[in-house]
Amino acid sequence: MNGSPVSLPLIGAVDPQAPFTKMRKLRVDQLPCIAKSIRGKIIEVHRGHIAPSLGATDIIVAACYTFDFDHDVFILDVGHQSYSLKLLTGRSIDNIRIYGGTAPFPTRGESKYDLLTEGHAGSAIAQSLGVAIARDYKRDNFNIVVLIGDGGLTTGEALEAMNQMGQLRKRVIVVLNENSYAISPATGAISERLSELKLNPLYTDTKLAVKDVLQYLPGGNLIEETIKGVKVRAAPSGVAPFFEGLNFTYIGRFSGHDIPTMVRIFDACREYVYDKPVLVHLVTKKGKGYEAAEADPIGFHGI
Q1: Which of 14, 104, 154, 210 could disulfide-link to 90, CB 3.0 to 4.6 Å?
Q2: C-alpha–C-alpha distance, residues 150 and 186, integer Å
Q3: 260, 233 contact by CB (below 8 A)
Q4: pTM reported for the whole predicted model
């Protein structure tokens, strides 16, 4: 893997062996500048998977700032959301999708931050379950974070894995990136239900008391100051019971482009000790930050 060294504003040159050291010294309000720079680089290179990568950028920046991925585990589903992670871990995308260059998906031999080599949708929750079982067998202690799109969530493998994960009560943080698309607009009953909720005026932004947010988090009273003042959406009655019925703690819905809020929520998830999986529900816009991709997310999926 070749390519020019990666440099980001406020961080400078990114060290592939310790990429998050400088980033974690930044203030939270400086992180959108990092996300904007990453989007600019993805648009400049313009070599495929632009729309999904742009849509997931803010989530990935917030996750990398909050979690310790030198110890914790980050698994992406689908893998073509990974361009932002590659830049944040010091991997050039100037030669992405070119023979001998940076791989367009998480690739195990490319970086220690790619736990698994993975391509298309539906496998990450099952993979994370395997990692969680191994972690608990070894009596280790680290967070496992999965970022999955609403298209990937509808696959049989993902649903089967959630079914078993909930039964086994494994500690995994599943971040649902809802953008109403797979490659094309998402279809099926689950996607339809999520879309209806987005349009329903009953589920508008509401400023809730901290205790109303924390009721979803076991031991939430211990971290009240961590997410004080978070602006959340009232838990949609048709979605929360679905995930809670699978024995997940449901937290949502939040904007997947509001980095400070995501940092608070991820920090809350990271800090408390929980005895079952958590699902954080985020809503994003595919192609975010690039007008052409926002207008044509299907056309800009693969180009």
Answers
A1: 14
A2: 8
A3: no
A4: 0.83
